């Protein structure tokens, strides 16, 4: 894992720029290694359509050339199941 990604995980937060150029302060809820790389689950503090905390999960790729975090989609069903299990444990859901 790159030093930049290690720092991001240690910090526990990062700024995300969306497709419209808006900045979102994100908090990392947890991370774990998988076959695809390092999974991070994070939130921008907003609510989803059901009024619950919006939580996102991605693979943390090698940093972009400008040093920003590179969030990649999770493509493996087993990884999604691991994320779901971790979220259930974190939020006390079954």
Architecture overview:
With 94 residues, the chain is of the alpha+beta class. Helices cover 26% and strands 35% of the residues. It is built from two helices and five strands. The chain has a five-stranded antiparallel β-sheet, sandwiched between helices. β2 (23-34) and β3 form a beta hairpin. The longest helix has 15 residues, at 77-91. The protein is globular and about 40 Å long.
* Inertia-based shape: globular
Amount of beta strand: 35-45%
- How many beta-strand elements? 5
Low-confidence stretches: none
Class based on secondary structure composition and strand pairing = alpha+beta
User: Helicity range of the residues?
Assistant: 25-40%
Q: Record the strand order, biggest sheet.
A: 1-2-3-4-5
Radius of gyration: 13 Å
Question: Count of helices?
Answer: 2
CA-CA gap between termini: 32 Å
User: Element order, helices and strands?
Assistant: HEEEEEH
Largest β sheet strand count, sense and barrel closure: 5 strands, antiparallel
Overall average residue pLDDT: 88
Name a few traits of the molecule.
26% helix; 5 strands; globular; alpha+beta; single chain; 5-stranded antiparallel sheet; 94 residues
How would you summarize the topology of this molecule?
Elements (H helix, E strand, L loop, with lengths): L2 H9 L1 E5 L5 E12 L2 E7 L12 E6 L8 E3 L4 H15 L3
Antiparallel strand pairs: 1-2, 2-3, 3-4, 4-5
